[in-house]
Amino acid sequence: MFVFSSEQFARLVEGRTGGRLLDLGAGDGAVTSQMEPFFDEVSVTEISAPMRKILARRKYRILEIENWANSGLWDVISCLNVLDRCSKPEELLAQIHDSLTPEGKAIFAIVLPYQPYVEVGGKGDHQPEERLPIEGISFDEQVASFVKNVLHPANFQVEKWTRLPYLCEGDLQQAYYWLSDAVFVRNARGVQTSSSALSDNLFVHRDSPEDNPDIPFEFDANNKKRAEALMAIYPEGHKRAALLPLLDLAQRQHGWLPLSAMHHVADMLEIPRMRVYEVATFYTMYMRKPMGKYHLQEDLTGKDMDEILEDLKAGRKPKAGPRSGRFACEPIGEPTSLKGEPTGPGFGVQPGL
């Protein structure tokens, strides 16, 4: 398992040295070894018997899960990818808070999107007894929710956070898996009460009459033909590249993009819905709710604007739709590629468009 290097950890803790470190759920100790050089004393916890043997060979002091919270105060407690794998994460947060020195730091890492899975304990169905109230669809939404709904109520204040790749062992289908880890450094003695928290600046999805998965949506006959034509542009196995224009088409038909429209596009492209959520919440051209009676978008060249202005001066209504009359921006002959000769210097429009 890989979460961060010693160099990255040094930036997280601002190069501090000395004191006591407790690494909760240390696994095989690989990540612990990246933090070890910064401390005088290192202790670990781990529930897996094989991992405990490895930790013992590494000479780490192993504390029992049941009583580590009674082992004194710690300068740093790391809880890396444990909150979504334990049965009572809220109880664990309280124990961490009460086990830190007055200037102590807690380092949390959690894989997002949040998908809890408890191997030992829990309710018998691999689900936790306490489910963290993390809301939202995209990575940013869930980060905001984790800060606001989980860590602030537990009296942890954000000092810094980052997004890191979490590499873990794979299976028969794949050698290893790459996940998105949100890593937070927290001060347990300060309680944030300001209304301008990080989460206030990020959107968290909540079902509404205008945006929910039950709103009926499917492309009408004309737009279905357009959608099929857009997907046909791309080679076999790459039709997911049509995601942006299909979302635009859905928005043009419905007026905005409810969850049901995103689900319809995901099903057409045979991609996970999460991929659609990430795109639709990242690009500002996609609207998640009605924006008014009229919604105007422009993406025009200088020549297009000249033609429109000439029409208006002459009292004519400018032509509606794409100026070229086409609903795709790929060349007529074939998808864009690097096979052709480059054009000369300066900006130009391909004649095949």
TrEMBL record:
Q: Which InterPro entries match?
A: METL9, NuoE_N, SAM-dependent_MTases_sf, Thioredoxin-like_sf
Task: Tell me if Metal-binding is a UniProt keyword of this record.
Answer: yes
Q: Which SUPFAM superfamilies match?
A: S-adenosyl-L-methionine-dependent methyltransferases (SSF53335), Thioredoxin-like (SSF52833)
- Supply the alphabetized keyword list: 2Fe-2S, Iron, Iron-sulfur, Metal-binding
GO MF term (any one):
protein-L-histidine N-pros-methyltransferase activity
Q: Where is the composition biased (Gly residues)?
A: 343-353
| Cofactor(s) listed in the protein's UniProt record | [2Fe-2S] cluster
Where are the stretches annotated Disordered?
314-353
Cell wall biogenesis/degradation listed as a keyword? no
Q: Which family does it belong to?
A: Belongs to the complex I 24 kDa subunit family.
Q: What is the designated name of this protein? A: NADH dehydrogenase [ubiquinone] flavoprotein 2, mitochondrial
Organism name: Frankliniella fusca
